[in-house]
Write a structure and sequence with these properties.
Elements lengths: L3 E7 L7 H12 L3 E7 L5 H10 L4 E4 L4 H7 L6 H6 L4 E3 L8 E3 L2 H12 L8 E5 L3 H12 L4 E6 L2 H18 L2 E6 L7 E6 L3 H4 L10 E9 L7 H9 L3 E3 L2 H16 L5 H12 L5
Parallel strand pairs: 1-2, 1-3, 6-7, 6-9, 7-8, 9-10, 10-11
Antiparallel strand pairs: 3-4, 4-5
Helix pairs in contact: 1-10, 5-6, 5-10, 6-7, 10-11
């Protein structure tokens, strides 16, 4: 029997560690699967999904810039968290003709990394989420469900942050969380946790908020990892914060996707430890 086929689709995608992570998950859980990275043209996402599904693909992860498109492809076959986000990072293919089913595991992955690996409680915290694209949309709901006292979304285009906040306002009200959208230059008070969910890391752009937004000793986490996250991590150190990259989120969201596809949960903590060792500079 040929192994089941999965992939991550994005642009760029060559940097992705997802193939290594899922290969390790499969090895540790005794699953027969192959997982690869597929570079998709900016205007070619629906065609790429159709071709992969038609060739027998069982599911895929979706990364920048296609998470909103992924949700639109699912024709209403969305999990509650993906529907709330309006974005998907996980697609399930039940056959070459059936519409894909969509889910979003980004938020679960981020919350698990913050609380279990970084050891920081979200409950009662003041949290700043920078960005309002597909990555930010996927994490906002689970962040609210972790019961911070206040959660502020800021973005270069304020209207996008406002749309995201409006979409999640009912959930925030039910959880007793104060949820706001502010322009970048209006955010100047310190926060316990600052999360960078913008694409600025990929482009090497400067961090778009003032250092005043991070309290001394606060957690500053970038959803990116590797060289793409370095600018934000350096910014966090300069302003007295505790820097953290997105590797833990990556592994935890991958574990959630794996469990959706395969029906069992892999040992995420072990794989995260191994991945950090793999990527550590020689002699470190």
């Amino acid at each position: 029997m040929a192994p089941d086929s999965y992939a991550v689709m994005g642009n760029p995608v060559a940097h992705s560690r997802s193939p290594w992570i899922h290969a390790r998950f499969a090895e540790l859980t005794g699953q027969s699967l192959e997982y690869r990275a597929l570079l998709v043209p900016a205007d070619g996402f629906p065609d790429a999904v159709h071709a992969f599904r038609g060739a027998g693909g069982r599911g895929c992860n979706v990364t920048v810039p296609f998470k909103f498109e992924a949700a639109a492809l699912c024709a209403g076959e969305l999990s509650a968290r993906a529907e709330l986000a309006g974005a998907c990072n996980t697609l399930v293919f039940d056959g070459p003709q059936a519409p894909p089913r969509g889910d979003n595991t980004d938020g679960v992955g981020l919350v698990r990394d913050i609380e279990h690996h970084a050891g920081v409680n979200l409950a009662g915290a003041h949290v700043l989420l920078v960005g309002a694209g597909g990555a930010a949309a996927g994490v906002l709901g689970p962040l609210i469900e972790a019961n911070p006292a206040r959660l502020t979304v800021t973005n270069r285009t304020l209207a996008n942050a406002q749309l995201l906040v409006t979409r999640h306002q009912d959930l925030a009200a039910r959880r007793g969380v104060r949820l706001d959208a502010l322009p970048l230059d209006a955010v100047d008070r310190p926060h316990d946790i600052v999360i960078n969910g913008t694409a600025s890391s990929l482009g090497g752009d400067a961090v778009p908020v003032s250092g005043r937004v991070l309290r001394e000793g606060g957690l500053a986490i970038d959803m990116m990892y590797g060289p793409a996250a370095q600018g934000f991590l350096d910014w966090a150190r300069r302003h007295g914060g505790v820097p953290r990259d997105g590797l833990g989120m990556l592994v935890e969201q991958a574990a959630e996707s794996f469990s959706i596809w395969r029906g069992l949960r892999p040992p995420a903590a072990q794989v995260l430890h191994e991945l950090r060792q793999l990527l550590a500079p020689a002699g470190a």
